[in-house]
Amino acid sequence: DYHSQTLWADAQLELSCLLAEELPAEPPRPEKDRVVFFQRLAMLFVRYTQIFRQLEKAYDLVVHPQKRRFIRSVLDSVMGRVLELKNEMVEKEFSEYHYMDDVLHDLKLIPADLEIPIPRYFHSERSKEVQQRKAMLTDILKMVEPVMAKEMSQEEAVKIIQVAERARQGRERAKFNMKNLNMNTVYRIKEPGADSAESAAVCIQKVWKGYVQRKRTKTAREEEMIFLGMTMDPKYEAPRPAEMTAQAIEASTRVKQMEHEEAYQKATVDVMNQLRDVEGDDMSKSMKVQIQQWFTECRNATGTFPDYPDEEDGGSALIFAEKTPQQVDPI
């Protein structure tokens, strides 16, 4: 994919520039000015964060197994460097919150670019582990004996039900009395007279105008929240064709990544088996010849055959480590 390759190339170029700045040929003098030193840390932190975001996105898009492994190693290293810089900034400022507006202005970035997203592979690559944990918890819960409820006689059950029902009736009666009291206070029944129709009309108008105004206020509040970006416009809540296409492409990429990873693992096992079948005998004979030659050279040098290294000490691996007989058998 061209986009992922571009992200990877840009991240590699920026990372090379940062490494050249952090590891110059001549070590720089220690910075004594605390403000200047913090500005340098903040600049490095922001730039490494941008590299992290690019690599994380490239890793999520690439489907080639070997490329994903290489990007993953670089991505983990960059994440470690970001944590180191954050730790240094906290130690120098004695605070976990930092103001880097000037750095963002110099790099022409926005505050959202400082956010460190959770890598998507944390969720996608740990799905099997999460499922295994859920299955294990389910098995454990099945093994635990259920807590038996306390036995209760019929008379005790009836008493509990009666108490609960009386309490419910009391609450309902209190609500009803309170509602009647409020209604009598707000809408007092006047004596029938000449102005009874006018009073009724005024009362209806008050209720209607209040309802209309509350509705207008609610609409205005929703429009203001949409304008400020605090809520989503209802017409955008439904998934659009572009979003559905992007989700389908993302799901297809996940499937391809899994298929290619399985093919890579299978090919690795096949190549190992093929090497054992084709070159296993030749490698075994070559190792035997080298071991015999080593024993012969040791006898010629010391006059006696050395003891074969124990398995706990490494076995024949010590022989191929280019050590002298005294180093292999110090006794």
UniProtKB/TrEMBL annotation:
User: What InterPro entries does this protein map onto?
Assistant: IQ_motif_EF-hand-BS, N-DRC_Component
Name of the protein in question: Zgc:153738
Query: What species was this sequence derived from?
Result: Oreochromis niloticus (Nile tilapia)
Upper taxonomic classification of the species?
Eukaryota, Metazoa, Chordata, Craniata, Vertebrata
Which gene does this sequence derive from?
Answer: IQCA1
